[in-house]
Prior knowledge:
Elements (H helix, E strand, L loop, with lengths): L7 H15 L4 E7 L10 H6 L4 E6 L6 H13 L3 E4 L9 H20 L7 E7 L5 H9 L5 E2 L11 E4 L3 E4 L3 E2 L7 H9 L10 H15 L3 H6 L9 H11 L6 H13 L11 H5 L1
Parallel strand pairs: 1-2, 1-4, 2-3, 4-7, 4-8
Antiparallel strand pairs: 5-6, 6-7
Helix pairs in contact: 7-9, 7-10, 9-10
Bound molecules: guanosine-5',3'-tetraphosphate (G4P).
Guanosine-5',3'-tetraphosphate (G4P) binds next to helix 5.
Amino acid sequence: MPTIQWYPGHMAKAKREAQEKIKLVDLVIELADARIPESSRNPIIQEIIGQKPSLLILNKADLADPTVTRDWEAYYQRQGQQVVSLDAQHLRSTKAINRVIQEQMQDFFAKRKAKGIKPRAIRLMILGIPNVGKSTLINRFVGKNQAQTGNKPGVTKAQRWLKIGKEFELLDTPGILWPKFEDPMTGHHLALTGAIKDQLLPMQELALVLIEQLRQHYPGLLENHYQLEVPEDLSSSDYLIQFTQAMNLGEDFNQAGEGLIQDFRSGKLGALSLEFPQDEVD
Ligand code: G4P
């Protein structure tokens, strides 16, 4: 299977830009995909965030297996990482997130107050790989009462801030990071969830990965959904052949694979996760 390459130049630029933005804020909201929390986080993120408070949001939780998402939350909490899961697309109010952020920043502002520094809004930014829901979340934060504050003096690159009530100011452009592919499975998971472009990997091969994963973690699911009758010990490629025939697609394995992947991405197969916290222990 081909490995996916990003240009190191892109990676370095994205990192530099994110680092510049982080200097301006009090807290970083890092967005990941709840179906693939590890693959959708770039390992350099911790390095970029440094000591700054951060909130990890497992977004698209509506598409992920709720039990597994709870396991991930517990997993990250054990690491001392503040975490919440979310469906940004259908979010009506960001009150719950606002509360978590305010709690997290309480000490910081109490210390400032003790020093006689005037209170001010908490400055936030959103950071994550492409397609993880950054713009959607920004829109939810800002809602209908969109208001922009002016550029801040002393900041070389013009940065626009969105005022969210009196409590928060949010950088209007999110930090975008390239995903990092240390093992090929990361690339497959990113492609399966639609985080990276379809053309990078052949559908047929991706579908084989999906079939393998779903049969391992959700036995019987594909058979029930598509009313397939297949022997349990069938290899993934033979499974795809049978699936393609059951879909009346002859030998068009690519089209069958694409259909399967679309059904997974859209949630038609149900709310399913591709990564599990115990995988991290292996
Ligand atoms: P980005 O800024 O990080 O690149 O992501 P963006 O907000 O544009 O979101 C990417 C896609 O994911 C959008 O779909 C958006 O509606 C969807 N999305 C964001 N948050 C959620 C969520 O919590 N649940 C679900 N189910 N979907 C979410 P789109 O515009 O249709 O793009 P695409 O799906 O065609 O890529």
